[in-house]
Amino acid sequence: MIQHFNEMYDGGSVREPYARLEGWTNSMPAELRQMKQAEAEQLFRRIGITFAVYGEGGDPDRLIPFDMFPRVFTQKEWRKLEAGIKQRARALNAFLKDVYNKAEIVKAGKIPAKLVYQNEAFERAVMGFTPAMGIYSHIVGIDLVRTGPEDFYVLEDNCRTPSGVSYMLENREIMMRMFPKLFHENRIEPVDGYAEALRRTLASVAPAKCDKDPTIAILTPGHYNSAYYEHSFLADLMGVELVEGPDLFCEGGFVWMRTTEGPKKVDVIYRRIDDAFLDPLCFRPDSMLGVPGLMDCYRSGGVSICSAPGAGVADDKAVYTFVPEMIRFYLGEEPILQNVPTWQCAKTDDLKYVLSNLPELVVKEVHGSGGYGMLVGPKSTKEQIEIFRRKIEEDPENYIAQPTLALSTTPTFVNEGVAPRHVDLRPYCLVGEKIELVPGGLTRVALTEGSLVVNSSQGGGVKDTWVLAE
Fold it and tell me: PANTHER family in the record, alphabetically (predicted)?
């Protein structure tokens, strides 16, 4: 039987980060816990924190499950994670700058050219163009899992538009509102500086043609998008405009925003739409979400787009396997955080191993996200495994496989009381004039007993993430 590291209990004793939470838990009767849980759900509903699930019928807007039991890290643990995340963000940006220009890493034989240049996320439209400060991925979401006291692994990188930061901020807000005494008793690093740090990051990468304080706007697909709440939430926190494609137009090499007082120039666009929809004159001609001529303004230095078009080639799940080599190649350092061992089904030997061991492996689509398009072998039926086997055999290049890690657990409130549930962590690393991240992140929890799938679209929930101050 696989032993899972319990982040609160070591044997029979409570680990130091959780020392003050045991009494809090034990002193909370079931009635109070249920009342507080209902209060949290009411707050989430009143604020409007929902996400969308399409294709299942009924109202697509769902309330994300919130667990009141916080996840806790010591300052020492966080320092290691912070250093590893910043190192990874630097290497990923160096890789993007390289492959869109001189491609030294490809010439050196460190990564196959096919994996880069035949990747559907690679955008030829920006070949030879370097954005402001040479930064392509300005908000990097690094998904981490833990398997032991000192063992953290990177599960995947999100270099385009990682979502979920609004949950990180609202989780904290709701916990502080419901349990003020708990925060008085524990010295917890704040996360409420994220919006200011994001605004600072976006402003620092304004284009050269911007000769004053940059005007920043968040470009959203609109209120039907599953993350629309987050788009409006961040715009409000930063004090910037939330715009849709038709609100913008291009003229004279610049991007302009339609306002009641006439056109206003936009210098930095934090885009929350995919590359394919950004500009119908450059990408998908049927896009109604983007801005005609946007890419011409971008390439001529009239506007900055964050994250840069084409950044997705760095968070492909097959490219992920080469990130440790990127760190060595560009930074001359050894990786602080390790990858999960990964088999690429595009390789003959790897494919043979994967097909022979499907019941023990986790298999993912190279471009998949949200917990879709994946097989968790140990939790799947023979029929599900055979269906996936045929998919892999038909298109092996579309899949990678990883061992089923013994993910750590944290205490979670369930109907019966408190029980361990598996978790992951997504910190948000901001890359601009400097690299920074707030102490914490989004902890996602698999609420179903024994489940390893933490995605909200697959029944997962969220909880507050604490980093204890020294």
Answer: BLR5612 PROTEIN (PTHR34595), SLL1039 PROTEIN (PTHR34595:SF7)
Q: Which helix (H) or strand (E) holds 47?
A: helix 30-47
**Segment holding 84, helix H or strand E:** helix 75-99
Give per-residue pLDDT as tens, 324-358.
999 999 999 999 999 999 999 989 999 999 999 99
What beta strand segments (E) does 48-189 contain? 50-52, 61-63, 66-73, 139-146, 152-158
- For 263, phi then psi, to 5°, come to -65, 140
425 vs 145: CA distance, rounded Å: 6
The backbone torsions φ and ψ at residue 95, rounded to the nearest 5 degrees and listed phi first, read -60, -45
Is 342 within 8 Å of 320 (Cβ atoms)? yes
Q: How far apart, in whole angstroms, are the C-alpha atoms of residue 378 and residue 289?
A: 41
Q: Rounded distance, CA 240 to CA 338, Å?
A: 37
* Count helices and strands in the chain by DSSP H and E runs: 13, 25
pTM beyond cutoff 0.85:
yes
Tell me the sheet residues that pair with 462.
66, 444
Q: Interior CA angle at 157 toward 175 and 228, to 5°?
A: 55
